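Chapter review: from sequence to fold.
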Amino acid sequence: MMPDKSVKDFMEADHDRLDSIYKEFKEKKHSEIEKAKKLFAEFREGLERHIVWEEEILFPVFEEKTGMKVQGPTVVMRMEHEQIKSCLERILEKISNNDPATEEIEKELEMVLGAHNEKEESILYPWIDQTFNDQEVEAFFSEISR
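The token string follows.
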């Protein structure tokens, strides 16, 4: 059976969903800190889950099939994931202390995340869709829907 959507389409839609939560967080953080905290928690949880999908499900299969385990796109993506998680932790710390002055960290996050998502959407996800067979794509969707 052919999977009804590509990894690229699904992961891009998740990027867009997360971006909109993040945007709302930024809009609310100075006026509604409690609402902003909830939005940031939702954004952070969603982004960390997205990273787990990549690092624990997609990347290992991609690396196995392409032989690119010690160098290649997934190595770079993992390093950027660490930078992203560091920014998330620092924003969380400030927001948890009712401090909405997170603009400097946001700039760093947006620089890393913007370039990161662009590389995934234009290079890595299409490559994954070309590399994975139907069973591997189905296994991905099955695994993330648990």
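Two observations follow directly from the output. The radius of gyration is 16 Å. The chain has five helices and no strands.
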